[in-house]
Amino acid sequence: MTTTDNGTVLITGPTRGLGRAAALAMAGRRGGARPDLLLVGRGGAALTEVADEARALGANVHTIACDLSRLADVRAAAEAARDLLDTGAVRPLRALVANAGAMSADTRVASADGYELTFAVNHLAHAQLIGDLLGSLTAPARIVLLGSNTYHANIPRRILGVPGADWRDPLEIARPATADRKPSLKATGVAYSNAKLAILYYAHELQRQAGPGVNVSVYEPGWMPGTSLGRAAPAAFQAIGRGLARLPGVATAARSGRKLASVALDDEWAHLRDGAFVVIDKEREVRPVARDRERERRLWAATAELLDRAGMRA
After folding, report:
1. Which of 43, 71, 200, 230 could form a disulfide with 310 if both were Cys (CB 3.0 to 4.6 A apart)?
2. What does the pLDDT read at residue 238?
3. Is cis: bond before 140, omega within 30 of 0?
């Protein structure tokens, strides 16, 4: 059963991997459990194809072309979504799934707005989108953010050399590395882990700001090496990921996509709020570092400042 009957789900990053699997899992549901879909992603053949496949499954689907590395695009996407909602082209907005992600291989690379690319796409773009659409959600509603356990370096990650977060002031995290800094896998990993820790902090503060009718949770799809997330990484790194993806017990986009769809729609997850953290199909406690009221407040304020700066430059 679902608490989002007769509603719409907006999902970012629906053209590949987890996002595609989740979108098609939603589209393939039966009867009143099938939501309308707003698919927000890069324009092109991949977005058209997933929309056509979702329609073939019976869903009412609209696509919104958007490059999440450009905040002007994100603001335009939110406006397009509001227009579709206001004209009745889709049913009331009941869920927003901030699925899209990126991992830049070079922390010197800046987004169109001048921010470090990994932080810009994973956090800032979704903060802009959610802020613009928060008033358009119809309660009971859900916001599901995509998290990752990479925010802390446990023993297996240390063995593999995968770094945890190295938290600093968000204005500093948003600043691209200087030109003299050579790209490194460590810097790439730290930037990704920082972005994922930011998502946890943001989720906790967003719940305080969103009001009682909107539940905020964070979904970790499990370890999925070899997905398109690391397509900007060095070729050797991508090859290792493809090899690891064949190991038994490794999460797959198909399985985790179905679970993400369930977290966005089903009654069994209706209790999730306050940034509750779900790993594949089980609710888990986050590490103490992921709950820090002062960092959460500072991130909220710094995010508003960064988004305002980008808006003034547009």
Report:
1. 71
2. 46
3. yes
